[in-house]
Each structure stands twice: as structure tokens, then as C-alpha cells.
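The pair is listed for reference:
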Amino acid sequence: MQHSKYRILGLVGQGQFGRVFCASVRETPAKDSRLTSQLVALKELSHQKAPTSEFLRELWFLITLQHPNIVTCRALEHTATGRYLVMDYCEGGTLRNLLKQDRPLRLLEGLQLVMEVLAGLDYAHRRGVVHCDIKPENILLTLGSKGWSPRLSDFGIARRLPEIGTTRLHQELSPDATVGSPAYMAPERFYGLYSPMSDIYAVGILLFELLMGYRPFGGTPGDLRWAHLNQRLQLPDAIPEPLQAIVKKSLEKLPARRFASASQMGQALRLVMYDPAVRKLGDCIIPWEHPTTSRAKNLKSETESLAQVEEQEASQPTINLVRTMRYAVTQPKPVILSAPLTALIATEKYLYAAVDKDVKVWCQPQTHLVTEEMPRTISMPEIVRGILPTADGCCVLTPLKIYWVNDRSWEPQCLLDMGLRQGTDAFRATVDSDGRWLTVAVPGELRFYALGANSTEADLEKALKPIATVPLPEHYLPELMFLDRRHVLAIWPDNEPKNPQTIFRVYTRRGTAVGSVRLSATVGQMVLTPEPYTLLGIPQSGKAAVLLMKLWPLKVARIPLESLPVSACVANWGWVLADVGGQILVLNNQGVQVGNFSSPAAPRAIAAWGKTGLVIAVNTESESHLHFLDVDVEETNSRSNLNG
């Protein structure tokens, strides 16, 4: 998009009328202007798929409806290749994306999400707008400190009521009067009738699906029409009685028997959230387990309609390969170190553990996780506060200096004296995997260094000079990591109560700013995953969960957990999380739990080492214990939970 104010970062979706892109906002329309951290969604509206009348209708609705739970249209963008609606970007994708995850919500979180959908609908209804196509694909998600927040989108087939705020049924005899999603359409919609209660019916289907993982009615479009008009609603016993009453009322066949307004249904949900039977299950992760026979019946009807109903394709159950795990502690007694641990890092070749002024180094064994050989000890001049591994050694961080340690001699040599005052938060640093590029954050600036032969030949007689510096306006230092051999990521988590956020900025290894994104949640520990530009992070507030964050373009998946993890690492057999009680949880690369076991309590750090190794560090007041485990992973073709 030449001379545009927006730079497209990637394709994030395919809408009914065209593609949807994530884009970053430029300071000016110039091609080489700096990118801001502000992200927008560009919704393409092709002339073939979206006639001018449809285009203007959706534009009018989006401009008219200004509400936190409705996507905002910011501008129009016309280029030589097309026309776009510039809208708020929602990094969580659609609610359908969330439902395709394995049990993605807690009960109270799901009810809160539906209440916010109803708040947006109530606002639209009071302004005389009926959405007419409420479904998970048209609900976008943004992440906040308390979890997901939904935003209604896609008003392409919305209808305006002749009388503002009316609850009466209205009929439209145009050819597209019954256009919509049959799986979520109220009975009267099949006859071209619509009203606010039609949207309430669709929310009832959505609520059932959130709770159970499948919809109450399935089949071909003809089957769905008959079911909505005639089939009796069957509610599983898993749904608490107070919630059953709300689902039943929202899915009444006759509009007059449903909730009179979206606000009335929202108020009913708000009250039921305080019901003892519901609060008791509030932290239970949904969808609930359900009988195999009922699910199999529903799966069959959904499968039959795949070729005919587009939205049911997104509802197809996915089969995840679940790997059963056996583990054995190959060394019954832990390795005891003489001081509390300050760093634990593993590479393909070595395991590094820092205690006081020493760095312990274990070489990767060929056949067993731990050999009988004692670790090599590297004595440093100062207390060690961090280790940055490379292919042929490591950089060792002390409070004021960076040392280089080569695996040919293991003799530490001073690589860089920061020249700063004594302080525990004096600087941050990261080095690339080849040990040729170094980035350091000090108060006020980022410094970029080309190590070249310095790190490999230990030719450190000349003072190391930065090849570039970048000013940092923030008053606190970012965490740093190399995303690959060319790009550095700087991370600023801010846990300010009223506006928690995490800022991610990407630079080249020579200091050129590439772009930045902002997440409306505070993320603590982050580890890089094998997926390019993708991080696994532990949020610092809210319910227990981990976040899977793809940076370019920004996409976030939130995985709820039973307990809050305090440490994480990425192994070639999954993501490994440890909580304060010593429970180890293993997730596969899709975020599905594949194993768990107990370890010593309160782990200080964990590290995956080799193909099956796991090292767990536990600190006491005067020493640290390293527990070496060998995790035997056996793959089976068992199913995970099936979600519609």
C-alpha cells in the first residue's frame, strides 16, 4: 500500500466480503516513516463481493454505534488495489478461534463474556439496529488484565428497525431477508422476520455452545430449520439449574417468551453469577465433559452439513495427538550447590547453573541425562546475575560487567565494562546464538555491538564500541532477547493498576527500529518458542493462565490453568510449566495438556536439556538443589477433548 498511512503486517482472516489484514500505523503517509505501536485491522471490501449499498450500510452502522463491545470504524482507506474499512484490531481473533482451543474458559469468564456481548447488543438495539448474524465468527476478542473482552463485528446484514427501540417483529421481503447463519438463526428469521429477540436467540445458542462445546441443534440447513422451529431443547445435567433457566428462556420458539431485551438477559446472567450453585463451579474450565453418545450424535449431524453450511466447517471437531508421559528420576539424590541459584540455562551442548561467584557447567551426556562426572566450575570476579548462552560458550553477567567464556578454555575474559554505578538493575543484555551480536540496555539508551571475532577468538584487548545507540524514553529497562540471528526484541511490562500493558519493540541487530506492538496485559516471564516470532508468557495478574503470543502480526491465545505457573521452559516435547507447589504441567504445541507430575516444591527455575531431560532448581536459604529428570514421552493416537 504505497503512500498509505498503514503498513500491512499480515493476513489475519477471511471475511464474507474480503480479506482482513493487521496493519501498523505510520507517523506520516511516507513510505519510510516510523511505525507506531498502534495496530488496526484493514477489512477489504471488494466491489464484486460487497456492492456499494452493502459497503455503505456497514459503514453507517459502524460509525453510528460507538460502544466498548462493538468494533469501531476509524477511517476509510482507498488505494489503487481496493477499498478498506480501518477498524480496531483485536489480537485475540474471533470467538470461534477461542472455541477451537481445548477448554479455553472458566465458567465465570464465559458468563462475563456473554454479558459483554449482550451489553453491545443492547446498545445497538436501543439505537434501532438488529445485528441479524450473531455467531462466534463475528465476535472479536481483545485481551485485558482480567481476561477476554468481546467486540461485535460484521454488520453487513444488520437491519434497522422502522421504530427506534421497538420490540415488535418486522418482516423484510427482499431476496437477502433470510441471509445469515442457520445454526444461530431464530425460528422467525427463516420467514424474513427479525427483531431484537432474534439476536437474543442467537446469544442463547452461543451460551449453550460455550458451556457444552457443541450447539443444541445440528444437521444440514434443512435439518437446522426444522430443529429451530420444532425440536425440543434438551439441556444436559452438567449445566447448573439456574443457568438452564436462562438458556431455556433465551431459546424459546416464540419471540414473546424470550427475554424482552438484551439488558434483561444480561441482568439475569449477572444475578445467576452470585447463585451458590454457579459460584461453586465458577473456576471450573468449560466446556464441561459430556456423554460420548450425545456428542457422537451431534458430531454426525455436524459432519453431514459441512459442505453446505460455511460456519459449521469452523465447528468441526479437531483431533489432537495426545502423548502419554512416563518420567523417571535418573539421579535419586539431587545435586546440591553451596549457595542459592541465580541462573539456570540449558543449550544443546551444556547446562549452566550460577551460584554466588561460580558458574557450574555440565556437558550434555550421550546416553543418560546425568553422568557421574562432577560439573566444571568457572570462578568469576563478581557475583553472577545472569548467563547468556551461545553455540560455543556463554556471556556471564555480573552487576557491572559482561564476561565472555569460551568452551575451548573456560577462562572468563571481560568483554564489556558498563561503566555504571553499582546497582542491581544497572543493565540488561542479550546475545545471539552465534555469539556475534550483543545488545545492551542501560538507563536512557539501547546499545548495539558487533562482536565478530571477539567472542570466538577472545581478542578483547581493544575496548568494545557500540555500532549504534537508540534512546529509550522509558524510565525502566526492558527485558531483551534475540528473536533470530537478525532481530532483537525489547519488552517493557508495566503493571500499573489502571492501565496494565506490555510493550514489544523489535530492532535489527544494528539498531534499526522495525516496529512495535502493545498488549493490554502485563506479562512476566517469557520464553521463545520454536514457532517464529512466537513467545510463551506468564501473565502477572488475573486468573492462572499462560499466553501464547505471535508478534508479527500480533495474535494472542490464552490458555487457562488450574494453578498459576511461576516458571516455564520450552522443550522439544512440549511446553513445561511449574507452579509454586511443585506441580509440573506439560502442554503440547497446541496448548493441550498432555501430562503432569509432582516435583520438589517451589521451583526456582526449570530448564529442558537434550531430547528428554528436565532440570528443576529449588532454592533454600543457604543452598540450591538441582533435580535431574528424564521424561520418557510415548505418542498414542488418543483423542483430546473434542470442541465444536
